[in-house]
Design goal:
The complex is a heterodimer. By secondary structure, chain A is an all-alpha fold. Chain A has helices at residues 3-30, 38-53, 72-94, 99-119, 121-124, 145-169, 171-181, 184-188, 193-219, 229-242, 247-262, 277-295. The longest helix of chain A is centred in the first third of the chain and has 28 residues, at 3-30. The relative contact order of chain A is 0.19. Chain B has helices at residues 5-32, 39-56, 61-82, 92-114, 138-160, 162-172, 174-179, 184-209, 216-231, 236-252, 262-276; strands spanning 130-131, 134-135. In chain B, helix 1 (5-32) packs antiparallel against helix 10 (236-252) and helix 9 crosses helix 10 (236-252). In chain B, a hairpin with a 2-residue loop joins strand 1 (130-131) and strand 2 (134-135). In chain B, 71% of the residues lie in helices and 1% in strands. The chains are: A mainly alpha, B mainly alpha. Chain A binds chain B through residues 34, 93-94, 97-101, 103-105, 107-109, 111-112, 115, 118-119, 229, 233, 236-237, 240, 273, 276, 279-280, 282-283, 285-290, 293-294, 297, 310-313, and chain B through 34-35, 37, 83, 86-87, 90-94, 96-98, 100-105, 107-109, 111-112, 218, 222, 225-226, 229, 258, 260-261, 263-264, 266-268, 270-271, 274-275, 278, 287.
């Protein structure tokens, strides 16, 4: 593959991760909520869109009996919406819990959702891959399809960036920031902080669902092992490295992480430790995360003042 | 409903492993006050080192277990000196995120060295004996006996030794214990030595009962969290009770729900536990 094509693929992955990081930044950066369920919202978006846009599986070994063959846009919208609903559902009982407790409950809820996807084959094809997910405008693009998808994904990232940036500085966003700083204060001012937290959780989860839909329609085939908790942790690393509280930072952090992970695609296969490279680059992610937290705790683009908030006990 | 004794036996074996792991995690939490996401990877590292000594070097399993436990005990202290120590004054959330970085590092180091696929300890092949209709293996009995001895040992340590009493004091009220002259840094050192050793041992037990894989500890982490939280974070007695509860509930559930969902039992128990008794089985509902 030519270098440009490889860069486009890496760019598409970076765009999808950027959307995930934007959602996570709403939770952690803006509201100070520890969400460890992001991989599940990503999965809900991907599976919803895939199930809605493909016909039921056929053949003697087919297990999936549900499928709708709707247009892709229906799938994407529904996937985004349903991921948001799941976000609110998970948040409803748990969002009152203190920081690290919330982390554990959301992590568990995410695994429960993955367990469902993995086992309910009638809906999701279970442990096998859900294949033949359609690509938007496939065959109708006169130039490189990857170039088209790259532009599509990054256009959506740009729109989301502007939207969330605006939301963050709006009265709604200012309440979220107040919750992050100390949620007794907005409560005393008559704001229903519980409802604001639910909204934050739902909106951030919805963007992760949109990322899931875009991912599913790009890769043709999805399976439950794509949505392990390690995705959630990678997105955490992206937000922290980029700078919590900054949407530009979220996008930069996601691109750095994807770059670190994918850079070995450009290295010839016969270098020493070639087989281990994919693991070594994840070790590097771990080290970079720790170094950033030590030397630049506000992250690459984050605001040092943000550090004072959301991290208290 | 008549309970299948085999399922209860399986539950006791799994519960023993979860209990030991939960005890280590809760000791670390009690003193250091942060949730160590990398704990499951400490377990896996202990299991791998023991496996390497056993299957690759060819030494007897007993020697390998001691090597794995010592390695993780010292390794935890080294990781503390290299990483966690520098974040001691930061918030618990920062430490939690730091431990994500440590987890990435350890898990992928294991994959880089020993590959992503599973391994087994070099054990003599024997037919599993059965008693009163319950089939069991020698390893399972060893797991239960060792875990009981360890739990009693840690209990005695916490009750009888100076360092154990200091640990309980610091876990109850860190500030007060520091004012009363407890050497916090020395305490931290002991906590990592003991907590790391327990992590290594529980990882080896997990590997003996099933398979040694790079993500084995991380996969078990949710059940361990569930045990810790059900027991009340930082409460060793509660962690053990929670561990046996989760283990037995998980295995016995197979009689009524599809076995693919048995891991969901721990998750549901965790969520219900957190929402109804956030301070644990023996805690007072003050939160």
């Amino acid at each position: 593959m030519a270098l440009v094509d490889l860069l486009l693929v890496v760019g598409i992955i970076a765009g999808v991760y950027s959307l995930l990081a934007i959602g996570m930044n709403m939770h952690w950066g803006d509201t100070g909520l520890l969400n460890f369920a992001h991989a599940a919202f990503f999965a809900v978006g991907a599976y919803t869109s895939a199930i809605l846009t493909t016909p039921p599986a056929t053949g003697s070994l087919a297990t999936r009996v549900v499928g709708f063959d709707f247009p892709i846009i229906v799938g994407l919208v529904a996937g985004t919406a349903l991921a948001g609903v799941f976000g609110v559902l998970i948040a409803l009982p748990s969002v009152r819990l203190e920081g690290d407790y919330l982390a554990i409950v959301t992590l568990s809820a995410a695994e429960l959702i993955r367990l469902l996807i993995h086992n309910e084959a009638w809906l999701t094809t279970g442990a096998q891959t859900l294949k033949n997910i359609p690509r938007p405008l496939d065959g109708a693009i006169p130039f490189s399809y990857d170039l088209f998808y790259f532009v599509l994904v990054w256009a959506i990232v740009a729109v989301c960036y502007l939207l969330f940036e605006r939301l963050s500085t709006s009265p709604f966003g200012r309440v979220l920031h107040a919750i992050r700083e100390n949620d007794d204060v907005p409560l005393a001012l008559g704001k229903n902080t519980y409802v604001f937290k639910l909204k934050s959780f739902g909106i951030g989860a919805a963007i992760a669902g949109l990322a899931g839909g875009l991912w599913a329609h790009y890769v043709y085939a999805i399976s439950s092992i794509m949505f392990l908790p390690s995705i959630t942790f990678l997105i955490w690393a992206a937000v922290i490295i980029g700078g919590a509280g900054s949407y530009g930072g979220a996008i930069l952090g996601a691109s750095v992480i994807v770059g670190l992970r994918q850079i070995t695609r450009f290295i010839p296969g016969d270098v020493p430790f070639g087989d281990q490279l994919s693991y070594i680059r994840l070790m590097v992610v771990g080290v970079v995360l720790i170094l950033v937290l030590y030397y630049r705790p506000e992250g690459l683009l984050g605001d040092a003042e943000r550090l004072q908030a959301g991290t208290s006990e | 409903m008549v309970l299948d004794p085999q399922l209860i036996w399986n539950g006791l074996v799994v519960g023993s492993i979860i209990s030991v792991a939960a005890l280590g995690l809760t000791l670390i939490f009690g003193i250091l006050n942060f949730i160590n996401i990398a704990y499951g990877d400490y377990m896996a590292a202990g299991a791998y080192v023991a496996w390497a000594v056993n299957a690759q070097v060819g030494l007897p399993l007993g020697v390998a277990i001691v090597a794995g436990v010592l390695f993780m005990s010292v390794g935890s202290v080294v990781l503390d000196k290299l990483v966690f120590q520098h974040f001691r004054t930061r918030s618990p959330i920062t430490l939690l995120i730091v431990s994500i970085g440590v987890a990435f590092f350890i898990r992928n180091l294991l994959r880089a060295i020993w590959g992503p696929s599973g391994h087994f300890y070099d054990l003599p092949m024997e037919a599993n004996p059965s008693f009163a209709g319950v089939r069991f293996s020698v390893e399972q009995i060893a797991i239960i006996v060792v875990s009981l001895l360890l739990l009693l040992g840690v209990y005695a340590m916490l009750r009888r030794t100076r360092i154990g009493i200091a640990m309980r004091a610091a876990s109850d009220d860190r500030m007060l214990s520091r004012i009363r002259g407890v050497d916090t840094e020395k305490l931290v050192l002991y906590v990592w030595l003991i907590g790391g050793a327990i992590a290594g041992l529980s990882g080896i037990m997990l590997g003996l009962d099933a398979q040694i894989r790079p993500n084995m500890g991380f996969t078990a982490l949710i059940a361990i969290f569930a045990a810790v939280i059900l027991g009340g974070i930082g409460d060793p007695k509660g962690a053990v009770a929670g561990g046996y509860f989760i283990g037995v509930a998980q295995e016995v559930s197979v009689a009524v729900i599809p076995s693919e969902y048995k891991f969901g039992v721990g998750l549901v128990a965790l969520i219900i536990g957190l929402l109804t008794r956030p301070d644990g089985l023996f805690g007072e509902a003050t939160r």
